[in-house]
Every structure is written in structure tokens, then in C-alpha cells.
Specification:
TIM Barrel; alpha/beta; binds cytidine-5'-monophosphate
């Protein structure tokens, strides 16, 4: 059964791309309408679990985007520990391999507080066709490689993939309706692309099959972040 959402706001995950707890709390308090926040490596390394405790206390959902990539035993332990914080989504790298992905699933299932949905990164968006072929020596097209990594993650029992909205249609078709697709690289028409290259508008990304959109700077760097967030929600509602 496909995932259901009560409102467009639930589908937008805003990244806390800030260096410390204080700035993160300012951002969270400044846009109370946002219900789902992403904590990445910089903030987690700097603030530790403190920021997760704060988000939980505010009743927010948490995407812990630490992109684990390690041997099976370590992957299992990291996912079990993530579950102790009560986070909703956790990322791992599909390229860690089948046994490490399976161990991650077992670790998450043994978590005491929540069983987080494990989502695998297929290919980092910073990897282009040239670096895939010449640096990483992978003899596949980018989109085919992303699909193979999604299928491997599915075989291991994960819940979904992080992917570019440009791969969402292919992954939705090949991985089925239940497979969660989380897409960064999303820009409303009125926002600047910044360093994102292969962008898509929020409504096009949802139409392509994305369940969740990770949208940062168009909201967090706006003069009025709450209004920018609402504008995206309104655009999704009328699409
Ligand atoms: O500000 P912007 O909307 O570009 O932020 C996108 C967020 O999604 C950032 O936190 C970025 O690190 C993350 N991300 C990404 N591409 C990926 C995986 C994560 O842009 N493949």
C-alpha cells in the first residue's frame, strides 16, 4: 500500500544545515510549522544527541542523516543506537554491501525506542557520470547504478532510497509503491538553485514519485522562512 499523507507540510523535510545547537534551535523555533527536520553530520558531530532530545521535546519528527557505511557489526550497532533516540528515518550507504545492509536492518529492528525506517543513499549527487566512470571505475550509467543500489537495498530489507528527483520515476516503477523515496535537489520556481544541479520543482518531484522532499535554503535562507514554507505547501496543495 502506498504511503499516505494528511497534508503537504508532512512531506517536507527541512535540513538543519547549521554548525551548532544554538543556531539549530533558532531555526526550529523560527518555523514552528515545520514538523520534520533533518540532522546531518555537521550538526550531529557538533551538538551530539542534545539536538535530537530538543526536537523530540518539541514533538518533531527526525531524519538522522549520518549516512552509515561500515562493516556489518558496526552498522548494526549504529542503527540500534539511532533507534534509542526515537528517530524516524536513518540513512546508510547502499554501497556498504548486502550483508552490512542486512545487519543494519537487524540492528534497527532491535532498537528499544522506535524502529527507524532505514533509507539507503544510492549515489551521492556530487558524483557525476565522469567521476563514476573514471574515479570509481563503475562501468554503469548513473541512473542504472542508482537503480541497482536501490534494488540491493530492497533485497536487504530496507525501507527506501535517497535519490535525485530525476531518478524518482525509475525507482518508483522498479521498486514499487511501498518503497520510500526521499528527494533533495528540489527548488520552487521562485527560488535560486544554489549549488544544486539537477533540480526539480516540489510538485514535479511529487508527481515523479517522491514521498518526501528535502528542501533547505529556499526555506531557511528566505527573508521570511515561515512564509516560504507555507508557499511551498500551498503550491503542493494546488498541484
Ligand atoms: O539547501 P538545499 O535544499 O540544497 O539542501 C538539501 C539538503 O539535502 C542538504 O542538507 C544536503 O546535504 C542534502 N542532500 C543533498 N543531496 C543528497 C543527499 C543529501 O542535497 N544526495
Amino acid at each position: 500500500m502506498a504511503h499516505r499523507f494528511d497534508s503537504p507540510a508532512e512531506r517536507i523535510i527541512v535540513p538543519l544545515d547549521v554548525p551548532d545547537t544554538e543556531s539549530a534551535r533558532r531555526l526550529i523555533d523560527g518555523i514552528p510549522e515545520v514538523t520534520f527536520w533533518k540532522v546531518g553530520l555537521e550538526l550531529f558531530v557538533s551538538s551530539g544527541p542534545e539536538i535530537l532530545t530538543y526536537l523530540k521535546a518539541q514533538g518533531k519528527r527526525i531524519f538522522l542523516d549520518l549516512k552509515f557505511h561500515d562493516i556489518p557489526n558496526t552498522m548494526a550497532g549504529a542503527c540500534r543506537a539511532a533507534g534509542r533516540y526515537g528517530v524516524d528515518l536513518v540513512t546508510v550507504h547502499a554501497t556498504a554491501g548486502l550483508t552490512a545492509l542486512q545487519a543494519a536492518v537487524e540492528g534497527a529492528a532491535a532498537a528499544q525506542m522506535t524502529v527507524p525506517n532505514l533509507i539507503a543513499v544510492t549515489v551521492l549527487t556530487s558524483i557525476d557520470a565522469r567521476s563514476l566512470a573514471f574515479d570509481l571505475k563503475v562501468p554503469l550509467e548513473l541512473s542504472d547504478y542508482a537503480l541497482q543500489m536501490a534494488l540491493l537495498s530492497q533485497q536487504a530489507g530496507l525501507a527506501g532510497s535517497v535519490c535525485s528527483p530525476h531518478e524518482a520515476e525509475l525507482l518508483r516503477r522498479c521498486c514499487g509503491e511501498d518503497w520510500l523515496l526521499i528527494c533533495p535537489g528540489v527548488r520552487p520556481e521562485w527560488a535560486q538553485a544554489g549549488d544544486q544541479r539537477r533540480i526539480m520543482t516540489p510538485s514535479d518531484a511529487i508527481a515523479a514519485g517522491a514521498n518526501y522532499l528535502v528542501i533547505g535554503r529556499p526555506i531557511t535562507q528566505a527573508n521570511e522562512p515561515d512564509i516560504a514554507f507555507q508557499r511551498i505547501c500551498d503550491e503542493l496543495a494546488s498541484a
